[in-house]
Amino acid sequence: MIFRMALLMLLVLMATTSTDTSINEQQTYIVHMDKAKIASKDNSRKWYEAVMDTITDLSAQKEDSTSSPQLLYTYETTTGFAAKLSRKQLESLRQLNGFLSATPDEMLKLHTTHSPQFLGLESGKGLWNSQNLESDVIIGVVDSGIWPEHDSFKDSSMSSVPSRWKGICEEGSNFTASNCNRKLIGARAFYKGYEAKGGVINGTEEYKSARDAIGHGTHTSSTAAGGLIEDANFLGLAKGSASGMRYTSRIAAYKVCWFGGCASSDILAGVDQAILDGVDVLSLSIGGSDTPYYKDNIAIVIGSIIDPSASAQKEDSASSPQLLYVYEKITGFAAKLSKKQLESLRQLNGFLSATPDELLKLHTTHSPQFLGLERGKGLWNSKNLESDVIVGVVDSGIWPEHDSFKDSTMSPVPSRWKGICEEGTNFTASNCNRRLIGARAYYKGYEAAGRRIHETEDYKSARDAQGHGTHVSSTAAGSLVKNASFLGLAKGSASGIRYTSRIAAYKVCWHRGCAGSDILAAMDQAILDGVDVLSLSLGTGNSGPYVSTVSNTAPWITTVAASYLDRSFLATVKLGNKQTLMGSSMFTGKSTVQLPIVYGKSAGTQDAVYCDYGSLKRTLVKGKIVLCESGYVSRGEMADNVKLAGGAGMIVLNIDDDGEEQIAYAYLLPAITVGATAGKAIKKYISSNKKATASITFNGTVYGNRAPAMAAFSSRGPSEIGPQVIKPDITAPGVNILAAWPPLNSPTSADEDKRSVPFNIVSGTSMSCPHVSGIAALIKSVRTNWSPAAIKSALMTTAYTLDNTKNPIVDVATSSSATPFAFGSGHVNPEIASDPGLIYNITEVDYLNHLCSLGYTSAQITLFSGSGSNFSCPRTRIPLGDLNYPSFAVNFTGKVQNKAMTFKRTVTNVGVPGSSYTVKVQEPKDASVTVKPTVLNFKKLGEELSYTVSVVGNRGKTSGGSSYSFGALVWVSGKYTVGSPIAVSWS
């Protein structure tokens, strides 16, 4: 487990797992092997190839007519590989010594300027002072690639690429080595997994390179590390200076997402390469469903890098196994195997596990200011920004030409960097520079799943064809770009959160998703490349506001929720009865006059309520405003259908579950989205007025709203897989975030939308993830020796739970106070997190002991152990509640009275010597809390002291009430307030 090498901030959305196949049909599996059983440790790929040969020989002996196994990737960081195998081949694999597990590859989806200010980041102060921003932090963005020409990625004033950087600027479709610079220092594309799953990269729509054709990777890259851009806006909205959270960071783009999704095997390959290249922060905005840790390839690859040391015999008719990837840090490989070949593999000495590859989906001008970051102060002072932090972004790639990735004024690439700028479709080594120092693309898992990468719609390289990876990369580490905006909205200077960081882009997501094997390959490579922070937007997911929808809940993963900034894009509806109702819109045209409203049957068929295709009658709709209810039709499709029918405007009503959600949309006709309360008022007015009328007015960008507030779409806890810890961990800006965008992607991705914008405004947990990735890069600049657990602890214990009106943070889904199952410990507070006073540290052994307490087998635990098979569970299991986590999850079964649960915690003094901390407790309803001792006296820095917490349930046998109650435990000493949430579940 090599957590010191790469911080992984993950946000996971819904995933589609591979369906069952016939015994001879091949599919991609991600295979994990026991590191201790590898015969040639200096070259694990040779061992995996030998494994493939063994399975092929066994198949031949049994007259197996199935294709040979195909090795797609080998993974260094997780010890394994991705390969196409039939069931028989998989069974052969299971017999091999050293086999641990095999899981089917899956296709994942991408999750998706005011943020720094909202987060309290100020130029020249604290985390954004010149000293903090000087360090060469490299952020690897594993996403849909990057648009390198974007202003967010310009490298002016950046120093040379750090010598430690081992990445490359991989050339490919519309991407050359010149696309990289001192900001975008690396770019690669991964698509073997995507193509293995049947994904087609259409060259007319996508780039077979690290170039972003989707926009997601460009957006996330600029959010995390995009450079400072003055006057950024989206069609005139959200005007201001846009920047990533650590806007001086370098960026390395790893494109793993394509139009059809992101193959898990490509994601793993991207992550693997990012680590090998030398990224400091690895950012992924991709995700899948919540599964047990030992079946979760993302959890395995992260868990396996915590340590800083870091079938013929069964008449198999399948073809030979196909080795897709070899994973170095993960100790395993990805290969296409039949089920019989997999069974043969299971028999081999050293086999640990094999899981089917899956395709996952990808799950900011004002953000730094909102976060409290100020130029020249604190984390954004020159000293903090000088250090070379490398952020690896595992996403849909990157658009290297974007201004957010320019490398002016950046120093040479650190010598420690081992990554490359991988060439591919429209991507050459010149696309990398001193900011984007590495780029790779992973698609073997995607293609092994039957997906094809169409060169007409995506790039078979690290170039971002979706936009997600570019957006994420610029959010985390995009350079400072002045005059950024979205069509005039949200104007200002745009930058990443750690805008001086280097970026390494690992493309694992394609148009149909992100293959798990590709994701693992990317993560594996990112660690080997040398990233400092690994950013994957794989986190909580966008399935809220429903209970227990949170995903990616392993305790070593930082799970980030999404919340609102204090900026909105205000629009209003004025009804014929003079009532005015507020909503949101990014329409930049003229307001409407008073027009008739039509709704439901007065607009067409029964489905006209949802404005479905063909449901609206032109004779009823022409020249009128159409009322549309949210449902199974997207807002973009609604707008297209209304416009096609001749409608003059549209009002979209939230469903009750979404409450007062106000996600802005760049409509192509005059349109507004209103909350559930306003929607009911409009429907009431229409029902009582046969000649109902309305007008829509567009007010542009508005600041000073009540914030933060929890987004309704942000997935909620508690975790069904790991209820022993509170998930999510923390929340960050994820609604209406402005960041870099590839010029070939329209802001809405609709066929009718021909607009080209350098910045786009996007919402999702994918957007909150790179904020935290960038902040992690900032803190790493200041606290260079801190472990990932220490940084995570600092983020959690300094988070706040009151909004800018000094009232509890609101959940917009219910309009009531949000709970820790929505925001975790609270809203991230970067400047305070850089000096938290106390930290809760967790070691590799602590995590492994926790797995022992969960009842995991030795083989399952070996998946996570960097030391291979050398770890043994203690004879006496450590209580589940004693994992040194910065929060307290209390689970009572049945109606209990006077039943106690006890927790032990150890804190380390990182504040000032000779300090005394006193505990304050806010007790949850129907529970009493006792802390011993109540005072902790520290004599020196680095000193560790322990305390115990006893929570007693006071519910009688007949008492009822909510299934959950919440409280808090806070240690106070002078300026330090070290808080932990308490969540009690009654089941």
Automatic annotation (TrEMBL):
Residues 1-21 form the signal peptide. The keyword Iron does not apply. Residues 593-682 form the PA domain. InterPro entries: PA_dom_sf, PA_domain, Peptidase_S8/S53_dom, Peptidase_S8/S53_dom_sf, Peptidase_S8_Asp-AS, Peptidase_S8_His-AS, Peptidase_S8_Ser-AS, Peptidase_S8_subtilisin-rel. Residues 882-984 form the Subtilisin-like protease fibronectin type-III domain. One of its GO terms (biological process) is proteolysis. The active site is at D143, H216, D395, H468, S766. GO terms for molecular function: serine-type endopeptidase activity. GO terms for cellular component: extracellular region. Belongs to the peptidase S8 family. This is Subtilisin-like protease SBT1.1. The lineage of its organism: Eukaryota, Viridiplantae, Streptophyta, Embryophyta, Tracheophyta.
